[in-house]
Amino acid sequence: MEKARKKTPNFRIQIPGDENAKRNILDGLQKVRDILCRNLRHPVNNCDIMESLLHNYLHDKEKEKDNTIPNFCTFKQTEKKDVDQKIFLTAESSVTRLCEVAGDHSKICEGKLAMKKITLKGHATSIRLSCTKDKHHSIFWSSSPYLPDNYFFVNYRVFHGKECSGILPIQYKRFTEGTGLGQLTKDKRKTYFDKYKNLVSMKTKCPLPMRWMRNVLAMNNKMKELTS
């Protein structure tokens, strides 16, 4: 015999009003439902909607009462236990995007975003941020924007600086290992070099002054020596 399904507990709230008031309230609830589903990325019911509305209203009222001045000081002194923390490069646009995401999150949740996992990718990094209150609020932030070929912008910039400086691969390796600033793998450096080589070869075919062309050819030969 099939077991009877347990009915979800529920209760009713009577709200005085005519059909017009009823329609306005139901339309408003539907709009809130759409926003919550989009932000939380999972279905919500009427109880979730009412709790969210009441929570946000009461939270705003508490903020009005709270006259405490927040601490906006960004000075951070490194302690001895933190001297081996991971360091990486970032770009202006990536920091701007992180501020935007944090601001959007604070509009729908009073929880804070905390770092859960840091993955170095060359000189850039990918960080997983999780909300301290709602586990569904999980965000991945990259410290560098992507280029059209899906490689990190900051890694290209570092490789460009490395090639222009003339340092040897062993010097680059020692520098990155000493600083802990991440490191481009040998395969990744070869990929970047091939792109540079094609670009330099293309430039040498252009009708440019001979002196400039000789400099480009010299740089091309230098890069071949460094990667041989």
Write a structural description.
The chain is 53% helix and 10% strand. With 228 residues, it is mainly alpha-helical. It has a 3-stranded antiparallel sheet with strand order 1-2-3, covered by helices on one side. Helix 1 crosses helix 2 and helix 6 packs antiparallel against helix 7. The chain is elongated and about 85 Å long. The N and C termini lie far apart (77 Å).
**Amino- and carboxy-terminal Cα gap:** 77 Å
| Beta-strand percent range | 5-15%
* DSSP helical segment count: 7
Mean pLDDT across residues: 83
Instruction: Describe the main β-sheet briefly.
Output: 3 strands, antiparallel
Helix content: 40-55%
Rg (C-alpha, Å): 28 Å
Unreliable stretches covering 5 or more consecutive residues: 207-213
Strand order of the largest sheet: 1-2-3
Structural descriptors:
single chain, 7 helices, mainly alpha
Short description:
The protein has 228 residues and is mainly α.
Q: Layout of helices and strands, plus pairs?
A:
Blueprint: H1 19-40, H2 46-65, H3 92-108, E1 113-121, E2 124-131, E3 138-142, H4 153-165, H5 169-179, H6 186-204, H7 210-227
Antiparallel strand pairs: 1-2, 2-3
Helix pairs in contact: 1-2, 6-7
